[in-house]
Design goal:
Blueprint (H helix, E strand, L loop, with lengths): L1 H19 L9 H10 L3 H10 L5 H9 L8 H24 L5 H12 L2 H7 L5 H20 L4 H17 L1 H19 L3 H14 L3 H12 L11 H18 L5 H20 L1 H4 L3 H18 L5 H4 L4 H14 L1 H23 L13 H9 L5 E6 L5 H6 L6 E4 L5 H9 L5 E7 L8 H9 L5 E9 L2 H9 L8 E9 L1
Parallel strand pairs: 1-2, 1-3
Antiparallel strand pairs: 3-5, 4-5
Helix pairs in contact: 1-5, 1-6, 5-8, 6-18, 6-19, 8-9, 8-10, 9-10, 9-11, 10-16, 14-18, 14-19, 18-19, 22-23
Length: 493
């Protein structure tokens, strides 16, 4: 056990390097800009902003006071350091909480998986609540397991209720999933409603100030319709979401094309190992399966495929625990499989820190470079962005002298072209993805219509697609796929 403590310490040391090094590595993206703007508002306005955008307040309250600390000049890097601190604390808690459930063999592998997790590194360094969700979910699930062992333990009951309310104050998806799954597990375990009273009473009391906002968010979730699909059907869309989630959890989201080819069969081997680890998971497998299922059902309705892993990050430590249980059951095969997984993880981390081979380039859009290109002309300009492109950061970076607006998708292209083309500006910049995912190719048709208002146009391209990107776009049937991800069309009079 002493050697296992050394392994845990080494894992935390490695994570310290990965999580806290160069927080400004990636440019700011849209959700991080939302965080920055929200925490700078007066407190009452911040709460109202969060209610409108269906966010609970705990992470934003912590960020509001953290950002005042003088760690770096860049406020976004400052916020990312807070997220990294939460991620590191979550790893420490996971090691303290979960290592005793494993043999020394399984414990060593669990430490390695957690230390070199490319998924945790990616999302644990973002100025969002993902890592705080992991930390508080671990605490809540720990209290739930204690309560399931002794349903009469009032301390465990109150602890679970309080911890679950803190998760709810951080994000609705894990909070509701843990609260509902905990109640179901207690009901099945005791066949009585009495053990449910204390934890749920504590939860409701602690969460009462924000309960109306939760109910409102549930109504919004129920009416949600995801207008952005990469496939033509609901079933195929779910396959894309599940596949992307699996790849992100197993290998991260910075994957060279040749490594991706190796990871396809390796992924099936890892899935087999996780399946073999189920018997060793013990009593916690049923409540955790319910938590994961409820969490996925809630987030898959709300977000499109690239954002599933971030919203499901709170179950990642338990997936690693399942793999560690698998290597206890199948030591020889498990050793080879997890060794290959760790090598792939290390290569993925190498690509991440080199800002290469991202599956979702939305986390690394070169907005600073684009803004410099737009500013360099020095003429009266208007910048208009596709609503399918999260370009709010670009508007934030541009000076007030250059107006910025989003282009809504409207029935008539001609009216939008007239609005944009008849203004007093000498230059017009249209910012969008090279793949036009709008209905009936609205943005492509708009660019054709705008050519009647300007003498000439020039297209600037950003972020070349990788070989893997080209293969995936071909599989998805994107016939308009360009060698680049983003384009800025500059119209000049």
């Amino acid at each position: 056990m002493t050697r296992l403590r050394y392994a845990a310490a080494a894992a935390l040391l490695i994570q310290s390097v990965l999580l806290f090094s160069h927080p400004g590595l990636l440019p700011m993206w849209g959700d991080e800009l939302f965080t920055l703007r929200a925490v700078r508002e007066p407190l009452a306005e911040m709460f109202e902003t969060l209610r409108r955008d269906i966010h609970p307040p705990l992470y934003f309250l912590a960020s509001r006071y953290w950002i005042a600390l003088p760690f770096t000049e860049d406020p976004v890097s400052r916020l990312r350091l807070l997220s990294a601190l939460f991620a590191w604390a979550a790893s420490a808690y996971a090691l303290w909480f979960l290592l005793p459930k494993l043999s020394p063999r399984g414990g060593w592998w669990f430490c390695g998986l957690l230390a070199l997790s490319p998924c945790l590194t990616l999302y644990g360094r973002m100025a969002r609540s993902y890592s705080l969700q992991v930390l508080l979910s671990l605490v809540a699930i720990h209290q739930l397991l204690r309560l399931l062992e002794n349903p009469e333990d009032r301390h465990a009951g109150a602890g679970f209720g309080l911890a679950a309310s803190l998760v709810l104050y951080t994000h609705y998806a894990p909070g509701v999933s843990i609260a509902v799954a905990g109640s179901l597990a207690l009901l099945v375990r005791t066949r009585s409603l009495r053990p449910l009273v204390l934890p749920n009473a504590v939860m409701l009391l602690a969460y009462s100030p924000w309960l109306a906002s939760l109910i409102s968010a549930a109504g919004t979730w129920g009416n949600k319709s995801d207008f952005y699909h990469v496939t033509g059907g609901a079933a195929s869309e779910q396959l894309v979401k599940l596949g992307y989630w699996s790849v992100s959890f197993l290998f991260g989201e910075s994957i060279p094309w040749w490594l991706f080819l190796i990871e396809i069969p390796l992924g099936f081997a890892v899935a087999w190992l996780a399946w073999r680890g189920l018997p060793g998971a013990g009593k916690w497998r049923a409540p955790l399966a319910i938590i994961a299922l409820l969490g996925y059902l809630s987030v898959s309705r709300w977000v499109t495929y690239p954002f599933i892993p971030a919203r499901m990050l709170f179950v990642l430590p338990f997936f690693y625990l399942l793999l560690a249980c698998g290597v206890e059951q199948r030591p020889i095969a498990g050793r080879w499989i997890l060794s290959a997984m760790l090598v792939a993880s290390a290569l993925g981390l190498w690509s991440y820190f080199r800002v290469e081979d991202f599956l979702n380039w939305g986390y690394a859009v070169p907005y600073p470079e684009i803004s410099r290109q737009i500013i360099s002309g020095g003429q009266p300009s208007l910048v208009a962005a596709s609503v399918l492109t999260d370009s709010s950061v670009l508007g934030y970076l541009l000076p007030p002298t250059i107006p910025f607006r989003s282009i809504p998708i409207q029935p008539e292209v001609a009216q939008t072209a007239a609005d944009l083309g008849s203004g007093p500006w000498s230059r017009l910049f249209i910012v969008r993805n090279t793949h036009d995912g709008s209905p009936a190719g609205f943005y492509s048709r708009l660019e054709v219509a705008l050519s009647g208002y300007f003498l000439r146009s020039e297209t600037h391209f950003y972020r070349p697609r990788t070989k893997l990107d080209n293969v995936l776009t071909h599989v998805l049937g994107w016939k308009d796929a360009s060698p680049y991800f983003y384009e800025v069309v500059e119209f000049q009079r």
